[in-house]
Design a protein that fits this description.
The chain is α/β, with parallel strands linked by helices. It has one domain. It is about 35% helix and about 25% strand. It has a 4-stranded mixed β-sheet with strand order 3-4-2-5, covered by helices on one side. Strand 3 and strand 4 form a beta hairpin. The longest helix has 16 residues. The model has no long low-confidence stretch (mean pLDDT about 90). The structure holds zinc ion. Zinc ion binds next to strand 5 and helix 4.
Length: about 110
Amino acid sequence: MSNKEKIIITKIEEVSDDSALLEQADISVCLEETEENIARVPPMWRNDIGHGNCAMCGTKVFFRASAAPPNAKKLCYHCAMDEIGDSENPIFLTRKSGADQLREYLKKKDQN
Ligand SMILES: [Zn+2]
């Protein structure tokens, strides 16, 4: 199995918002800033969009401004997968508060 395939099946760990692990994160995986991707941002996060450029290829990316790990370089999805593909045991993190908000949103969306 290639490292990239392993990454795809890697679990995402939910950590508390003040977890020290977030400060140690090397990479923040961001989506490319396209109209289509921006349109998919759940309503509760629309006012919390930060804009930047991929640290490797310069592509315009966006992210949740209040949630981006402070010391991590922002990479577009493609560069992030290339970069992470070379590392031994990458750990994927997400903030528990964000995961909870997303679950709540998806639950409501299902009911409509
Ligand atoms: Zn890139």
